Amino acid sequence: MAGWNADTAAGPVGSGTVTLVEGSSFCISSANGDIHPEHPHGVFHEDTRILSRWNLAINGQVLEPLTASTQEPYRALFIGRVPRSDGYADSPMIVERLREVGAGILEEITIRNYSSVEAECMVTLSVGSDFADLFEVKEARIERRWDESRHWEGDSLTIRASWQDVQKSVVVNASGADVTTEGLTYRAVIEPRGSWSTLLTVVPAVDGARPASFVRPVGGEISPSDRRRQEWVGKIPKLHIGNRSIERTLRRSYDDLGALRIEDPAHPERIVVAAGAPWFMTLFGRDSLWASEMALPVDPSLALGTLQTLADRQGSVVDPMSEEEPGKILHEVRLGVSGGLALGGKSAYYGSVDATPQFVMTLASVSRWGFAKDTIAALLPNADRALDWIRKYGDKDGDGFVEYERLNDQGLINQGWKDSWDGINFANGRLAEPPIALCEAQALAYTAFLSRAWMAYDAGDRDLAAQLTGEAARLKKRFNEEFWMPDRGYFAIALDGKKRQVDACASNMGQCLWHGIVDEDKVPQVAERLMSPEMFSGWGVRTLASDMGAYNPASYHNGSVWPHDNAIIAAGLMRYGFVEEAQRIATALFEAADYTNGRLPELFCGFSRDQVAEPVPYPTACSPQAWAATAPIMLVTSLMRYDAHISLGGFWMDPALPEAYGDLHITNAPMAGGRITIDIIGSEPSVQGLPEGIAFHREHRPWLTELIKQAGL
């Protein structure tokens, strides 16, 4: 993945920190702009911390932070003041640090003297780089010690380091500074009511190869990051909704989705979705697929690029260290991480039970949105290999269910979306023992079989379609027999290694609704349980019910609320006609977003809304995060019942938006190679600009189960 570029993203990581992101580069600093090596701060490029110390002092004084503004995801303005030495509260010396992240950072420092007397300033920047791996920094365990050398020449400082046969370096350019091996010094005399400015760049190099340095735009020009952002805004739908709070959240989602796009230099036509900022600005299987699936109405090409990129890296051999297996779709890719720190000890790690069936599901979704037949056909062999993985490696014991058990002690213990070590447990809190068959993994496998069946039928291969439909039907029957707990009125989260029902009440069963694997007679009880006080916090459905033994509202997966999880659950409830319940979930999440400036985080704590009047942040949640950014899109499109199936010549919409949302107006929405305009006024929809051959239907789009039945398979 070396050399990947992306649009950008920004957000807080922990209290008092500021995060800026652009592709494989990102910066985390304190509120005054300083970077400290003892904290999870730094400028990171391709998973390496190229700047571990960047501390500004004026006359020996550290800046007192006033504000940090991130109007663009990749650029921040830090404003601080220089404390007075005489003890007075107000200082006349204000410092602005305008920072932009790219391949390194560009920073403009401006000191403004608001006093009536001249000010002499000694401006110092202490600089350090430890070239630590991202995981070393994130987990506060710096293991490698690089042999470092420093060299200054003119107004540049170069820090070089070597570890075994790896060479890395970073170059600091500081025009007009006195440069030493320790850092940079400026001496400035600032007139009364005057100002002083300087510009610095920090650019990484790997094995002596310098990436392109920052080019400062000249009069009237915009930066490359700004240009990419403008191009993204120009290609996506423009939305207006009567409820301005919801409109702000949806627009923020669009911005963050654009920020999380990564471009593959080997295939510049492919755009994929990174998982989240700041620690996961890389390709993930599950996260990238879900995010691009949710974003199909905004930009279907994101899903196609993600599929093509994952197909290139589909497993081909059995490797217990990376957990690669033939046909398997990877979990994540890492850049330059030392073998002892990355999952599985390698840059690509395959420990995911759900990414592989998800790949087939998303391919079918992309095919519905009207891409060229040869484009889809090129990916069908990858889909077939994925199904072979489900049958052979995903179901090692041959019981018809997909299970996981890690193949080495560096891998993930749990390999579904709840991948924390304690994420799968019984009602009494006891941990489930592997191999574990998750309920939603079976639902994904069910959809994968049906997805490939429909694509086979669509291509004229009725025999293959019938075979796959039969596999799906058998899986659905056994799922409802083995996972349903009639005495509890809900589905087990999993079967453990002894095929016992893992009986915790968890949100996973809500995701099963979306796939249609749940028998109709069981849905009312599932819906009732999902919306019970134990499951629904008032801000969303909890990952684990509050009456379970492992419940902890401030845990990662055992009682927290995840926006993407809720978006899938709401879509599943809509599928089975539980409209009021889906509206409740969607409205709760949009109200929660009001407390985070319109941006839904990866997750928040599961405290009851009755107990705490606003959502409680989870301390280390990623923000922005791909499937959290796309959750508002899925919530609204689910309530709109908005979808397309181009080969069937149809666009479907049957809105059930709550009255409080107001009227909806969308322009520039992609549809079959064209752009359409949508209006929903008082629940009445209208569409303009539909391409030739595409008809509007006021009903839900036929589900795969319905299409298969209509085809007589």
Folded structure, characterized:
The chain folds into two domains: 5-214, Glycoside hydrolase, family 65, N-terminal domain (Beta-galactosidase, Chain A, domain 5, Distorted Sandwich), CATH 2.70.98.40; 236-645, Glycosyltransferase. Helix content is 27%, strand content 27%. The protein is built from 16 helices and 36 strands. It has an eight-stranded antiparallel sheet, with no helix packed on it. Strand 34 and strand 35 form a beta hairpin. Helix 13 packs parallel to helix 15 (626-640).
Taking the alpha carbons of the first and last residues, their distance comes to 42 Å
Shape: globular
- Strands in their spatial order, largest beta sheet: 9-10-11-12-19-16-15-14
Can you tell me the CATH architecture of the largest domain? Alpha/alpha barrel
The total count of strands amounts to 36
CATH-defined topology of the largest domain: Glycosyltransferase
User: How many structural units, i.e. domains?
Assistant: 2
Strand content: 25-35%
Q: Tally the helices.
A: 16
Mean pLDDT: 91
Supply the helix-strand structural class: alpha+beta
